[in-house]
Every structure is written in C-alpha cells, then in structure tokens.
From TrEMBL:
<feature type="transmembrane region" description="Helical">
    <location>
        <begin position="237"/>
        <end position="262"/>
    </location>
</feature>
<feature type="domain" description="ABC transmembrane type-1">
    <location>
        <begin position="69"/>
        <end position="256"/>
    </location>
</feature>
<dbReference type="Pfam" id="PF00528">
    <property type="entry name" value="BPD_transp_1"/>
</dbReference>
<feature type="transmembrane region" description="Helical">
    <location>
        <begin position="103"/>
        <end position="127"/>
    </location>
</feature>
<protein>
    <submittedName>
        <fullName>ABC transporter permease</fullName>
    </submittedName>
</protein>
<dbReference type="GO" id="GO:0005886">
    <property type="term" value="C:plasma membrane"/>
</dbReference>
<dbReference type="InterPro" id="IPR000515">
    <property type="entry name" value="MetI-like"/>
</dbReference>
<keyword id="KW-0812">Transmembrane</keyword>
<keyword id="KW-1133">Transmembrane helix</keyword>
<dbReference type="GO" id="GO:0055085">
    <property type="term" value="P:transmembrane transport"/>
</dbReference>
<keyword id="KW-1003">Cell membrane</keyword>
<keyword id="KW-0813">Transport</keyword>
<feature type="transmembrane region" description="Helical">
    <location>
        <begin position="7"/>
        <end position="34"/>
    </location>
</feature>
<dbReference type="InterPro" id="IPR051789">
    <property type="entry name" value="Bact_Polyamine_Transport"/>
</dbReference>
<dbReference type="InterPro" id="IPR035906">
    <property type="entry name" value="MetI-like_sf"/>
</dbReference>
<comment type="similarity">
    <text>Belongs to the binding-protein-dependent transport system permease family. CysTW subfamily.</text>
</comment>
<keyword id="KW-0472">Membrane</keyword>
Length: 278
C-alpha cells in the first residue's frame, strides 16, 4: 500500500477544523443545556442535571414556546406540501420549451439572491396595501415559498432532465390516460426525489427567520420566539430549547432518510420479483 501524500493529511486536518467550526456551536449549546440548577450561560459548568429541560416544560414567563413550535410545524407542513405540488407541476411544464420559459426560470431563481429581509419587507408591504392582515399563515406562508420553491424547482428540473420518456410512451401504448401515466409511472419513479423536495421544504420553512421577521404578524414562529428569548432569558433554559429543536430537526431528517431507504428497498424487491416472473 502506497503511503499517503502529505497533502492528504493537510486536507484532512482542514476538513476536521471545518466540521468543528460547523458543529462546534451546536455541540457547545448541547453541553451547556445540561448545567446544574445553579449553572449559567457560560463555562465552567456548575454541575450536571436535566433541570433546564424540566424548567422548559414548566409554565413560566419565557415566551410562547410551544405555541410558536406548533405554528412553525404547521407552517412547515403547509410549505412542504405546496412546494412538492408546484415543483412537480413546474418540472413537468419545463420538460418542453415554451415562449418565455427562460425568463420565467431566471425570475424564479432570482428569489434566491435577493436579500431575505427585502423579501420580507416586500411581502409585508404587498399584504398591507392589499388590505390583508399580516399573519404567519398568509403573508408568512407566501414569504417562505419564495425561498423553498426555487430549491424544489431546481431539484425537479434536474430529475426530469434525465427522466427516460420511454416509460411514459410504454404506458400510453397500453392505453393509459395522461393522469394515469403521471400517477402510476412518473410519480413512483421520482418518489425518492420528491422526498428530497419535501425535506427541503419543511426544514427551510421550520428554520426560516429573516423572511418571517416582517410577515409573521402578532404571533411568532419558533425562530422568532427564540430570538426574542435571547433578550430576556438569562438561564440555560434557552440552551435546553436549542438542544430540543436541534434534536427534532435530526429526527425529521432521519425520518425522511428512512422513508427513502424503505422506498428504494421496496422498488428493488418489486424489480426482482418482476424479473423472476419473466
């Protein structure tokens, strides 16, 4: 076995430092959330306990934590479903060139480079001028779609760019209608990619702060509530909240990954069964 070049160890060290920089703050918050009852917001730790997690579930004046969590969760589901539907429809539409398709594509992508706070301000102004009350489920929902839809559309463009139309032609030769082709052929094939779009939609919505700053109205989502807590909470209870929300995010990601794994296993099993039948 040939010895590894010196550049390998340099790059490995650089990558290790990058990972530490990326996850170090999250790990620090996780450690400090287990402070003892007399602990503070910094090191050294004053004992180890679950006290601050217990305090988090007590009725106390630290903000509307669970109400904001429910709003973020509901909004994430709304954005996820909408992103999936619109992304699939857009991906199907862009399979064929049409007049203005290039302009429409760049208009969609432009939303990714416009500063988020300007998007929030613009959406808030539009709703105010239209006489529609600013609310997390209306203006906030619209503001978040300017963030999630471009990602979903880019994924679908990549998927349909390498999609083999022979499967659809075979289904149509068998007498399938246009809807049956989409339902029984296209959607099952792109299902793993749809899971990716769903994960994009939910996690980007759940974590969004800037676009919600001027569009959430009187009720905060969880990122806004946590930001508000940083100004009046001086105990590790805020770290406990951060640890729980991070754990929830990992649970959501793991659930999507398991779903994709199960889907691929089922597809492979059906493929082998079909091969044996032939």
């Amino acid at each position: 076995m040939e010895p590894r070049p010196r550049s390998f160890y340099v790059l490995a060290t650089f990558f290790g430092l990058y990972v530490l920089f990326l996850y170090g703050p999250t790990i620090t918050i996780g450690i400090l959330s287990f402070q003892g009852p007399g602990g503070g917001l910094t090191f050294p730790m004053q004992g180890v306990s679950l006290n601050w997690f217990h305090e988090l579930f007590e009725t106390q004046a630290v903000g509307d934590i669970w109400g904001s969590f429910r709003r973020s969760f509901a909004l994430g589901l709304m954005v996820m479903v909408t992103t999936i539907v619109v992304s699939v429809m857009g991906g199907l539409a862009f399979r064929k060139r049409f007049r203005g398709s290039a302009v429409l594509f760049y208009l969609v992508i432009t939303a990714l480079v416009i500063p988020s706070i300007l998007i929030s301000l613009g959406v808030g102004l539009v709703f105010t001028q239209a006489g529609v009350p600013i609310h997390w489920a209306t203006s906030g929902f619209g503001a978040q779609l300017t963030w999630t839809l471009p990602f979903g559309l880019l994924v679908m463009f990549a998927v349909f760019n390498r999609f083999n139309p022979a499967y659809e032609e075979a289904a149509r030769d068998q007498g399938a209608s246009a809807w049956q082709v989409v339902r029984h052929v296209v959607l099952p094939i792109i299902a793993p990619s749809l899971m990716g779009v769903a994960l994009f939609g939910f996690t980007l919505s759940y974590d969004e702060f800037a676009r919600m700053l001027l569009t959430s109205g009187s009720y905060n989502t969880l990122p806004l509530e946590i930001y508000g807590m940083t100004t009046n909470v001086t105990t590790p209870v805020i770290f406990a909240l951060g640890t729980l929300t991070t754990a929830f995010s990992f649970v959501v990601i793991a659930a999507f990954l398991v779903s994709v794994w199960v889907m691929n296993r089922r597809r492979a099993r059906h493929g082998s069964d079909a091969g044996k039948a032939v």
